[in-house]
UniProtKB/TrEMBL annotation:
Keywords: Membrane, Transmembrane, Transmembrane helix, Transport. Its main location: membrane. It comes from Urochloa decumbens. Belongs to the SLC29A/ENT transporter (TC 2.A.57) family. It is a multi-pass membrane protein. The keyword Transport applies. PANTHER family: EQUILIBRATIVE NUCLEOSIDE TRANSPORTER, OS07G0557200 PROTEIN. This is Equilibrative nucleotide transporter 3-like. One of its GO terms (biological process) is nucleoside transport.
C-alpha cells in the first residue's frame, strides 16, 4: 500500500470526526427517502383507502431490499463498492423525484394505476437500500468502529427527523386533501436535496479524508479488491504487498459460509430485531460511545439479544391488559435496546478479521438484519387474519 509521505499514525486519525459526521449523514440518507414515504402514509390512505397502503408499500419494499442485499452478499468480493454505493444513493434521489413527478402527473388522483406507481417507487427504494446499507456497512467495517456507530445512528435519526418534520408540516398545512398533498411534496423535495447531498459527499469528500485513505489502503494490502475504485477516487496508487508473492496464503480469506458459521450468534441477533426507528433507538445507538457500559462479550450479547424475545409476550399482555403508559414504556425500551445492541454487535463482530473478511461480514450481518425486518413485515399481515381484506 502507499500513503505517500504521510505518517501512517497521523493518517489513521486525521479527519476522524469529519468522517463520523459524514457517516451520520450517509446513514440518514440511506432511509430518509423511504421513511418520508412511510411518514406521509396518511396522504396515501386518503388517496387509496381500499388498497391498505400502510401494509402493501412496506411489503413491496421488503422483498426487493432483501433480494438485492442477498445478491450483493454472495458476490461482495467481486463488487466495486464505490459504484455500488453511488448507484444506491442515486436511486434514492431518482425515487424521491419520481414520487413528486407521479403526483404531479396524476394531479393527486387515486385509483389503481397511481397506486401501482407508488408500489414501483417503493420497490426501487428497496433496491437502493439493498445497494447502500450492506455496501456501506461492509465498507465501514474496514475502518474504525466509530464510523459504523455513526452510520447506524444516522439510520435511526432519519426516522426521528421525518417524524418530527411531519408534526411541523401538520401544523403548517391544513388537514385537508390539499394540505396533505403539499406536505407530501415538501417531504419528497427535501428528500431529493438530501439524497443528492449524499451522492456528492460519498463521491468527492469522503474518499479524500486521510483516515479513510489509510484504512482503505490497509484493506487493499490485505488483499481486498473492493476498494480499488475508492483508492483511485482518493488519488492513492495501490501497490501490491511484497508479502503476497512470498506467502500466497496471507491473502486467503474465509468464505462467506465460514464467516456465517463463526458468527452465527451475531446473525441470530439480526434475525430477532424488528426495526424501531424512533427517538429511543437513536439514543441507544450513542450509548456504546460510553466505553464503561459498552457490551463486548459474545455470550453476553447473545444472551441479551435472545432475551429480547420476551418482549413479544410482554407486548401482547401489555396491549391486552395494560394502559397506554406501560405500552409507551415498553416501546421505548424496545427502541433503546435495539439501537444499543445494533451498534455493539456491528462494531464488535468485524474485530480480528482481515479487511476483505470484515467487508464480507458487514454485508452478511446486514443481510441477516434485513431478513429479520422482512419477516416482521410479513408477519404484520397476521393481524388481518379473520378480519377480511
Amino acid at each position: 500500500m502507499a500513503y505517500g509521505k504521510e505518517d501512517p499514525a497521523l493518517s489513521a486519525s486525521q479527519g476522524k470526526y469529519w468522517g463520523m459526521f459524514i457517516c451520520w449523514l450517509l446513514g440518514n440518507g440511506c432511509l430518509f427517502g423511504f421513511n418520508s414515504m412511510l411518514t406521509i402514509e396518511d396522504y396515501y390512505i386518503y388517496l387509496f383507502p381500499k388498497y391498505h397502503p400502510t401494509r402493501v408499500v412496506m411489503l413491496t419494499y421488503q422483498p426487493f431490499v432483501l433480494a438485492t442485499t442477498a445478491i450483493f452478499t454472495y458476490h461482495e468480493a467481486k463488487v466495486n463498492t464505490r459504484l455500488r454505493n453511488l448507484a444506491g444513493y442515486i436511486l434514492f434521489f431518482l425515487s424521491s423525484f419520481a414520487a413528486i413527478v407521479l403526483d404531479v402527473a396524476t394531479s393527486g388522483r387515486g385509483g389503481i394505476a397511481p397506486f401501482v406507481g407508488i408500489c414501483i417507487i417503493a420497490a426501487v427504494f428497496g433496491v437502493a437500500d439493498g445497494h447502500v446499507q450492506g455496501g456501506m456497512t461492509g465498507d465501514l467495517s474496514l475502518m474504525c468502529p466509530e464510523f459504523i456507530q455513526s452510520f447506524f445512528a444516522g439510520l435511526a435519526a432519519s426516522g426521528a427527523i421525518t417524524s418530527a418534520s411531519r408534526f411541523v408540516t401538520k401544523a403548517a398545512f391544513e388537514n385537508s386533501r390539499d394540505g396533505l398533498c403539499k406536505g407530501a411534496m415538501l417531504f419528497f423535495s427535501i428528500s431529493c436535496f438530501f439524497e443528492l447531498l449524499c451522492v456528492l459527499l460519498y463521491a468527492f469528500i469522503f474518499p479524500k479524508l486521510p483516515i479513510v485513505k489509510y484504512y482503505r489502503s490497509k484493506a487493499a494490502s490485505e488483499g481486498s479488491l473492493t476498494v480499488a475504485a475508492d483508492l483511485a477516487a482518493g488519488r492513492i496508487q495501490n501497490r501490491p504487498n511484497p508479502m503476497f508473492e512470498e506467502d500466497p496464503a496471507c491473502v486467503e480469506r474465509l468464505s462467506t459460509k465460514q464467516l456465517l458459521l463463526q458468527n452465527i450468534d451475531y446473525a441470530l441477533y439480526a434475525l430477532v430485531l424488528i426495526a424501531s426507528y424512533n427517538v429511543w433507538d437513536l439514543i441507544g445507538r450513542y450509548i456504546p460511545l460510553i466505553e464503561q457500559i459498552k457490551l463486548r462479550s459474545r455470550k453476553g450479547l447473545l444472551v441479551t439479544v435472545v432475551s429480547r424475545l420476551l418482549l413479544i409476550p410482554a407486548s401482547y399482555y401489555t396491549a391486552k391488559y395494560g394502559d397506554q403508559g406501560w405500552m409507551i414504556m415498553l416501546t421505548s425500551f424496545l427502541g433503546l435496546s435495539n439501537g444499543y445492541l445494533t451498534v455493539c454487535v456491528l462494531t464488535e463482530a468485524p474485530k480480528g478479521y482481515k479487511g476483505p473478511e470484515q467487508n464480507a461480514l458487514g454485508n452478511l450481518l446486514v443481510l441477516c438484519l434485513l431478513g429479520g425486518i422482512f419477516c416482521g413485515a410479513v408477519l404484520d399481515w397476521v393481524w388481518l387474519i379473520g378480519k377480511g381484506w
